[in-house]
Amino acid sequence: MKVFSKDAMQAWTVGLNFVFATFIGLGVGYWLDRFFKTSPWLMLIFLLLGIIAGFMELYKLAKKQSNGSDKEDI
């Protein structure tokens, strides 16, 4: 019995990657700001980098889906 489709699992993975990349960037930036006392600049820069990384993962999945390279075997 199949509970989740492959597409649903990929969407879940992309969503989690987006959230994790954003929070990791935010955390690294916050830590660096506290270490170098540059608040809030490094936190903002790394937050932006985390968001960009999340969107890159989303773009990769969209490109993979549009090319049809992710077809299920029959």
Structural overview:
With 74 residues, this protein is mostly helical. It has helices at 6-36, 41-67. 78% of the residues lie in helices and 0% in strands. It starts with 5 loop residues before the first helix and ends in a 7-residue tail after the last helix. 11% of the residues are buried. The chain is built from 2 helices and no strands. The chain has a domain at 14-63.
Strand proportion: under 5%
Through-space gap between termini: 17 Å
Based on DSSP secondary structure assignment, what is the total number of beta strands? 0
Low-confidence stretches: none
N-to-C SSE string, H for helix and E for strand: HH
Main pleated-sheet profile: none
Structural class by sheet pairing and helices: mainly alpha
Percentage of residues in helical conformation: over 70%
| Tally of helical runs | 2
- Roughly what is the average pLDDT, rounded to an integer? 87
Report the C-alpha radius of gyration, rounded. Answer: 17 Å
Judging from the principal axes of the Cα atoms, what is the shape? elongated
Give short descriptive properties of this protein.
2 helices; mainly alpha; elongated; 74 residues
Care to give the gist of this entry?
The chain is mainly alpha-helical and 74 residues long.
